[in-house]
Every structure is written in C-alpha cells, then in structure tokens.
Amino acid sequence: MNRYPFWKYLLILAVAALGFLYAAPNLYAPDPAVQISGQSSAMQVGPGVLDKAERALDEAGIEYFGGEVGDKAALLRLKSIEEQLPAKRAIQEALGHSDYVVALNLASTTPDWLANMGASPMKLGLDLAGGVHFLMEVDTNTIVKTNMEGYEADVKAKLRAAKARYRSVDLVDDREIVARFRDEELRNLAMSTLRKEFPQLQLTESGSGDNLEVRATLSEQEIKQLEDYAVTQNLTTLRNRVNELGVAEPIVQRQGRNRIVVELPGVQDTAEAKRIIGKTANLEFRMEARPDTLVTNKEYFEYRNEQQRQMYGGAWLERKVIIKGDSVTNARVGYDESGLPQVNITLDSRGGELMHRATWKNVGRRMGTLFIESRFVPETKVDEQGNEITVQRRTDDKKIISLATVQSALGKQFRITGLDSPAEAQELALLLRAGALAAPMYFVEERVIGPSLGADNIEVGVTSVQIGLLAVVICMLLFYRVFGLAANIALAINMVLLVAVMSILGATLTLPGIAGIVLTVGMAVDANVLIFSRIREELRNGMPPQSAISAGFDNAYSTIVDANITTLIVAVILYAIGSGPVQGFAVTLSIGILTSMFSAIMGTRAIINLFYGGRRVQKLWI
Amino acid sequence: MSETTVENGKITEYMGKRVIDFMRWRKLAAAASVALVIASIAALVMNGLQFGLDFTGGTQIEVGYEQAPRIEDVRSQLQEAGYEGASVVRFGSDNEILIKLPPEVAEEQTQVSARDEEASQSIGDEVVAMLGQKAGGSVELRRVEMVGPQIGEELRDDGGLGMLFALVVVMAYVALRFQYKFSVGAVVALAHDVIIVLGFFALLKLDFDLTVLAAVLAVIGYSLNDTIVVADRIRENFRKVRKADSEEIINISISQTLGRTFMTSFTTLLVLWALQFFGGELIHNFSLALIVGVVVGTYSSVYVAANVLMMMHITKEDLMPPVKEGAELEEMP
C-alpha cells in the first residue's frame, strides 16, 4: 500500500530536475557593464572602439574585464556597480557624443550550456533594477482638430467646385465644421456633394429661414481609427528612439485605447530619456540643385541608407524648402500595376498646393526628401559663478532618404516609385510618417527608481523570503516531524518550480512579486496541513497507519482543489484589473498556487510513499 | 466504539475528538461582527480612506541624505524654492525623506507635451539638485513618482469594480460547487473581512495605495480559502453524520478543521511578519493589510460563514447529493 509506480517517481524527479535547470540562471548574478553601440543602426562597433573604451577606463582607474564585441554593440564588464556611471562618462567622453551611444547594462553570467538550453534568469522589474517608467497619452483632441482643419479647406474647395454657394464655412470648437447656406436648394446640393466626397464625415442639418446649416463631425469610429493610427505611429517612432538609448531590455507597449508605456530599466537620467522620447524628427522636400546653381543656394547632403551612401555619396539640393514634414498626412506602402513597391504619399491641401506650384514647371528634375533628426549633445560650459555646468545643445542631422525624378506635376497625392524592395518601401514610408505630425503625447505618469533603492528592495525582498521560509520550515518540522520534513522538501521544490516557471515565461519579478512569493510560501503548506491533519484524524479514529495515509491524501484532495481554485480566480481578477505592481503580485501568486498543487500533493505523497510505503508501520511520526 | 459521545443532550465528542460548542456563542459573535463592521463603516465615513498617490495622482519624491536632516529644514527649503504645500515625512530610516507635492504639480506636469522641450526637465532632478545645494551636496534621488489625476481616477474605479467582480465570481463558483446558502455565507464572510480591513486603514489613517488594494484582494482569496475548507467539511458531515442536528454538525466540522485553520493562519502570519519587519517601507502597508485580513479571515471562517448558514437554516436536505448520484453511491460495495 502507498506505493507509486516507478514512472511516477521518475516524472516527479524529472520535473524537479528541469525546474532546477531552468531556475539555475537566477543564481548567477549579472555583472554591471557598459554597452557601446553606434548612433545609427548602420554604425559598426569594432575592436578599435573597444580598445579606445578600454584605454579610457584605464585612465580613469576603473577596473573592467571581459570586453566583447557583439553584432551591434560592444560590452565591457565592470567590477562594481558604483563605477557604472563614471565608466559611462569616461567612455562617452573618449568616444565623443556624435557617433556612439554608451549605456548602462547588466551582462548575464549564465554559463553557455544553460543559455543554450534557453534558460535565462527572471527579468527584474523597475522597482528592483532601478530605471524609469513613463506612461504617455496621445492627445485625441489635437488629432481631431488637425484633421478637421484639413477638412475645412477641402470642404470649401469641394463646395465651390459644385457651385454650392455658402455664406460661411467655419470650424467650431475644433471639432465641428459648420457650413451656412441661404436657401434649401443650395443646402441640398451641398449635402449631396459632401456626402459623396466625404463619406467619413457625419452630416446633420440644422438652422432655419435664410440661415440653413450643415454640420459635419468625425464619427466615433473615424476618431478611433485616427487614434489607432496615431498610437501605432508613435509606438514605432518611440521604439526607434528608445533603441538609440541602448537600454538592455526596454518596454514600449500600447496600453488601452490611447496610451503608451515606456519602461527603461537601468536608465537614471530622466531628463535624457525624456528628451530622446520627445525628440522630433522632421522632413524637408527640396528640389535637386542644377549643376549651375550657385554654391550659396545649394547644400550637400549624404544619403541616410549606408548602401546608397557608399554608391553615390550624397547630392546637392537647393536651399529652398518646398514643404516640411508637417504637411505629410500619410505615407503608405503600395504596389503599382506591375507589382513593384511604391510609397503613396498624401499631403494636406496647403502642402498639395505648394507641391504643385514647385513641381509643375520642374518635370524631369529630381526632388530630394531629407530626414532630419534632432539630437541633444551635452556640452560643458562655465557659468557666471565659474562652475562647470553641462548644457544640452541641439544639433540637427539631415540626411537624404529619397531622391526621385518628378514625372509630372505633383499635387495632394503622389507616389515615389523605383524602389528596390518592399523592405525599402516599408522603411521609406516609416521615415516619411515619422516626420509627419504624429499626434502630440503627454506624460501622464512618470516613475523613477534610483539604483540604490532597487538594490535595497532586492535585499529586503530576499531577506524576508529567507526568514519567512525558515520560520515556516521550522514550524512544519515541529508540528509534523517526518511529514513536516516531507512537506519542507516539497516546499523547496515548489520554490524552485515557481522560479523556473517565471523564468521560462519571461515574467518580470517585482517587489510585490516577491511579496507574492512570500505569501505563497505561507499558503503552499496549507495543502500539506490539510492532508496531515486529516491523517491524524484518521489515526485517531483507529485506522491503521497505511490506510490513514491513503485516506488522508484522498479526503483532503477535493478540499485543496476547491480552495486553490477560488484563490486562483481572485489572482486572475487581480491580474486583469491591476497595473504594474499589482500584476507582478498576481503573477507570482497564481504561478505559486499552481506549482504548489503539484508539489504539495504529488511531491509530498511521493516522499511519504518512499519513506513509509509498502512496509509494516506501527506508528507514524506525525 | 460509538461514533459520538453525548452529554446533556449535546454532542461533546465525535470520532474521538472533542467537539467545541462554537455555535453556543454565535449570537455573541454575530453581535461582535456587526459591531466591528459598523465601527469600520463609521471610520470609513468619518475619516475616509487616505488614498495613496496611485489613486489620487500627484508627485512623490523620495530622497536619501547621508546624515539625517531636520524635517523643518527640508520643508522650509522647499517652500523657499517655490514648492508650496509640500508634505515632508521620514520614510523608513532617519536618512530618507519622502516629499509629497500637491496634485496641481502633477497636473501641470502632465500638461507638458512630450514634444515640448520643457518636458525634458524632470521635477525629481530639480528638487534633488535644489536640496543637494542647500544641504551641501550628497542628496540622492531614490524614487520619483508622478501620476496624473486621470490615471488615479481610473485606477480607483477599476479597483472598486475588480473587488465587486471578485465577490460575484466567487459567489457563483461557491454556489455551483456547494449550494447557494454556502455562497451567501462565503460572500458575507468576505465582505465582513474586506470592510474590517478597510475600516482599519481608515481608522489609523494609513496610506491606501495600489499594493494595499492587492493585499485586500489577496485577503479575499485567503479568507475564501479558509471558508471553503470549513464549508467542505460541513457538507461532508451533513452527508455522513447521522444523529445530529445542523448546529451540532457545524460544531463538529469547525472543531475538526480548527487545527488546520490555526496552523495555516499561523504559517501565513509567520511569513507576513517576516515581510512586515524585513520587507521594507514600500510593502509595509501591504503586509499590514494582509495580517489584519488573515486574523479577521480566520475568525470569520469560524463564525461568520457558519453563522450565516445557521441563520439560513441549512439542513441535511440542502446538501444531500442529487438522487441519481446517491443511488450510484449506494450500489458501491
């Protein structure tokens, strides 16, 4: 009696062993490190750069080791975490600000054989790793306003063209276009014109006598689409910008209808982070300079794309700007009749006019599109009191992203063809949109956690887990002796499994998450307590030891499942309604409940069976 | 061996275990519970919950000094620098200071667009630089939290909704697995626990932040766990014990599970104390809420849920398995 088939032991052993393997990477504390990457993705970071950085650290007297050059970035490990910031400063100073980004990082020390199995440590949340968290909201009102402003001009133009003479067309409250007419006939004409030309607008009639009105608004669905578009566009732009920060594991995610979360672990300089996030990219469309254009009227720009730069270098463009990026309302990838990729560009009406004026007599010439990125470069200055202060100077980087021949007079809508691949078209469209007026965003939440607080949090978290665990282990031993020992082994397996599952799922560990683990420790033994008190009860009823063990496990089973499922329901609700910290707690709690059911029921049973099973037992040590 | 020992017409022992007559004091316990709940509601009405930053929005800056500064100094330095209405308290140790700026500051901050170059100025950096200058260097920024008012409002709504939703789902689950009288008992017990924990926070004017909300929801989970274990046993005994009335069956069930109830509460309290004393200032209130919740939850699983069952006149018939299932059981050897 009370014996498990051999395969069951094997299964439990295998699960525990896998758990150990996947939990193991968490034992290897990462090295503090600095990471050097190129300012743009095209920049290569070679051994020469690493040498330079190492020399800078030597000079600053900062100890380092294990320099390595990866695909995109070089990494230097440091001896102590306090030296990260000085090291970053020293290297940035030595390499200059214009070409390289130096960022703080944590380098994994997981052995290769573990890493090859896909095992990796848990991610640490911001409250443990330190870093910044932003929540940004896309400004819906401005999106609606800019759109309606665009429509206002278009509505006037279409009404004029249809000879629907209006008394006035105004934008009211930034969200409603009101057109006024003298008589019914004109209004009906206007209604049918507008209905045909602008199906996306909601039209209503109002007014009376000789003051008849047509009111046009964006439908809720249309607004939602615009919002969607703005958020996706901002997301892409933000991702690109955040990548420049060289942060180890940044999070840029949409949250809800119109919000974006940005989390940058390890970043300390909020001001810098905010600058980069808020950085504006812009576009300029200019004609290519004729060979005989005076030098004072033209400028030389390089291609942004490295391949093109190597092939052609750059081009001379006129100084005169036709339109800027804020005129671009959309840029999408499309395909022409023969299936070649192209980028379709839509301008607002003012931009369309300007574009038409500039191109109708310049057919056959080439037009260049410049992509402008602003960067802030720290500069050391001396202020009035003679103190050295660092100020951020803004520099503009202008590069050519497209140089295409004008085939005919261009207007509100035109396209760029002659692109080599869909990928190129995709990138061009993205860059054109990045310059377009993405809706403005506001910081609605901002959290910064200093590195010392993060380290403190880890310490208090680990201490409380250790002490809580120790207290529970002793308590179980005192109360249930041999069975307590079995429960403790199961508890240890449970902890390992919990950590392993979190590592495999890539869940983020936070301070509330640690609290969840601690709570799991306290509650995980509940299953065992239920079983053991049941066994004691059966013994008291005069049942022989072996049957008591069996009955105890069997009778407690449904209670354990019921109790845990209800707790799991609560944990899931917690996860669904919660944000950051609460979710961290909910995740560890729910994983803990699931792993504890396995370890407390199957694990404990296996140990007890090994110990007592199949023997004549007179007395149970319980 | 006889199953039960009867003295003065009451079962005092069942299957070799002493049966404590819990339900004898059930009226007293009910009165105590009602009094506690009323007191809690009164505290909630009078003091209200001291909502933390997560819910109200606002700005909070934690700074670390090398030597403990005087609170008054920090306060006047802030005032001089134009931060009106800042509250300054020690946080955790003597060297750490928590500064709370009024909600208007956060509101202003959220008005700044990400495109604006002014956005690059961070209020945390500003305050730390200012305090560092006044203190002669060495002020460290530990944490800055700026939450816009709209976020807080949403969280408050979501939190309240979440709690209600949790109660409803739990009620449905218990009704499905047990019987509706049990689900009423469980939900009354849960509401009892949640109200008392909230009342405790209102009475002592403790900060109620997002982690405390998580703790309250965890209390729901925990207390439910306890209640279900007792309910499970009551159901089992209704089907098993023959010559006993409802009151006696509830007494037997609670007596049987009492050891387990105490043991689990004890181990949970052990780890919560560990969290409270070693877990640091940030989760201090979290563990406090859970400690109160576990204590109240333990009591409520004994007295509140069972009491409701008694009041609703739970009977054997309520819990007899459906006829078909019963027939099968009897056929079994």
Structure description:
The complex is a heterodimer of chains A (622) and B (333). Chain A is α+β, with helices and mostly antiparallel strands. Chain A has helices at residues 6-23, 47-60, 84-95, 112-116, 126-129, 140-161, 184-197, 220-244, 270-277, 306-312, 349-359, 422-435, 451-505, 511-540, 545-577, 580-612, and strands at 31-38, 64-69, 73-78, 100-107, 123-124, 131-138, 168-172, 176-181, 201-208, 211-218, 251-255, 259-265, 281-287, 298-303, 314-318, 323-324, 328-335, 341-347, 366-382, 388-405, 413-416, 441-449, 508-509. Chain A starts with 5 loop residues before the first helix and ends in a 10-residue tail after the last helix. The mean pLDDT of chain A is 84. In chain B, helix 7 (180-203) packs antiparallel against helix 10 (284-311). By secondary structure, chain B is of the alpha+beta class. Chain B folds into two domains: 4-51 and 151-325, Multidrug efflux transporter AcrB transmembrane domain (Multidrug efflux transporter AcrB transmembrane fold); 58-147, Alpha-Beta Plaits, CATH 3.30.70. In chain B, strands 6-7-5-8 form a four-stranded antiparallel β-sheet.
The computed structural class of chain B is alpha+beta
Q: How helical, in percent, are the residues of chain B?
A: 55-70%
Tell me about the largest β-sheet of chain B: 4 strands, antiparallel
Q: Which shape of chain B, going by the Cα principal axes?
A: elongated
- Overall average residue pLDDT of chain A: 84
**Under the CATH scheme, which architecture of the largest domain in chain B would be assigned?**
Up-down Bundle
CATH superfamily of the largest domain in chain A: Multidrug efflux transporter AcrB transmembrane domain
End-to-end span of chain B in angstroms?
22 Å
Low-confidence runs of chain A: none
Major β-sheet strand ordering of chain A: 15-14-20-19-13-16
Gross CATH architecture of the largest domain in chain A? Up-down Bundle
Q: Which structural class fits the helix and strand makeup of chain A?
A: alpha+beta
Which runs of chain B of at least 5 residues are low in confidence (pLDDT < 50)?
Answer: 324-333
Described by strand count, sense and barrel closure, the largest sheet of chain A is:
6 strands, mixed
Span between termini of chain A:
18 Å
**How large is the count of helical segments of chain B?**
12
Oligomerization state: heterodimer
- β-strand number of chain B: 9
